[in-house]
Amino acid sequence: MTTLPEHQYIQRDTGQVITERLFSDRMIHLLYAHARERSPRVFDQLTSRRTNDCCAFWQFDLPSRRSPAAVRRMIRQLAIRMDECLSPDELTSPRKLFERQIRYWQCRPMALDENQIVSPADARMLTGSFARQSQLFLKEKFFDYQDLLGANKTRWLEAFQDGQFAVFRLTPEKYHYNHLPVSGRVVDIYEIQGAYHSCNPGAVVRMVTPYSKNRRVVTIIDTDVPNGSHVGLVAMVEVVALMIGDIVQRYSPERYDTPRPVTTGMVVRRGQPKSLYRPGSSVDVLMFQNNRVQFCDDILANQHHASARSRFSRGFGRQLVETEVQVRDTIAMKGAFDG
């Protein structure tokens, strides 16, 4: 039996190198290493919406998985912090656990400085650049730039050319609400149809640019407005993955109260809930205009950690190590833009 390589990341608050337990790792390896090459038609069916919905039902909605014992076992296996949850007594099924709300205003504190960009999710994070002269140049590794935003979106493709980006990988045990990384006004929001590829690091490396092949929602935020973060245009791309059935837009200006769809013209506040992934693992991508932000030094240093073993490093031929961040953590500061 083939031994799969380890995948490690850096825990931000301790600096420890952690070996990740990848869910369904061997099954995903077989799917992407063999089925994709030998049976492309079968592979396409297995990454379709229909198969994805069936897998999600089996994992999260089967009656046998909703027993109190099964729910307690899932809490232990995923190490879910029940003390962070709102109404923990109501989390009586795998789906409810996955879609849980937390007391983020207490357990995910946020810096007051509006010019600090914050993480949109509890996730493992990598940074990159579209500019060839940058040490962070990673264009066309995780996604095809034009495909990710939409080949017909000329205005946005020009706006983010030579800019920076960050990829946030949410794993199944994570809190799956997305929060706003910046404050500003929504100038565009649209959906692009696609498949449901896994965000397992091994699958990402084998698939090449999978995030621009998956179904996704793109939100463009203008932060150069009154009470905005003043870091230019920011694109937030919410990408579905294996067993994610939907992305529900439900912006809440206060805690989780009065959720509403995100629409063009809406003014949104940094750190507030924006949307919810419906079960599975998923990915957020943030895009910034050139020279408008500077990523935090510790995240950049972790990315080149000398001893951590990352499947991204093996697959892309350079050291690429993720940092685990929490939603509303500061990940970047306002850059040295002089325009």
The percentage of residues in β strands lies in 15-25%
Q: Helices and strands: which structural class?
A: alpha+beta
Strand order of the largest sheet: 2-1-15-4-5-13-9-8-7-11
**Fraction of helical residues:** 10-25%
Could you describe the largest sheet, including whether it forms a barrel? Answer: 10 strands, mixed
Task: Catalogue the unreliable spans.
Answer: none
Structure annotation, total helices:
11
Shape: globular
Compute the number of strand runs.
16
CA-based gyration radius: 19 Å
Average pLDDT over all residues: 84
Distance between the termini: 57 Å
Sketch the topology as an H/E string, one letter per element. Answer: EEHHHHHHEEHHEEEHEEEEEEEHHEE
In short:
This protein has 11 helices and 16 strands.
Topology, element by element:
Blueprint: E1 8-11, E2 17-19, H1 25-38, H2 40-46, H3 49-60, H4 68-78, H5 94-98, H6 104-107, E3 116-118, E4 123-129, H7 145-149, H8 154-159, E5 164-170, E6 177-179, E7 184-192, H9 201-207, E8 216-222, E9 233-239, E10 246-249, E11 267-268, E12 273-278, E13 282-288, E14 293-295, H10 297-303, H11 311-316, E15 322-325, E16 330-334
Parallel strand pairs: 1-15
Antiparallel strand pairs: 1-2, 3-16, 4-5, 4-15, 5-13, 6-12, 7-8, 7-11, 8-9, 9-13, 10-12, 14-16
Structural features, described:
The protein is an alpha+beta fold and 339 residues long. The protein has a domain of 224 residues. Helix content is 25%, strand content 24%. The strands form 3 sheets. A 10-stranded mixed β-sheet has the order 2-1-15-4-5-13-9-8-7-11, with helices on one face. A 3-stranded antiparallel β-sheet has the order 3-16-14. It has a 3-stranded antiparallel β-sheet with strand order 6-12-10, with no helix packed on it. Helix 1 crosses helix 2 and helix 1 packs parallel to helix 9. The longest helix has 14 residues. The model has no long low-confidence stretch (mean pLDDT 84).
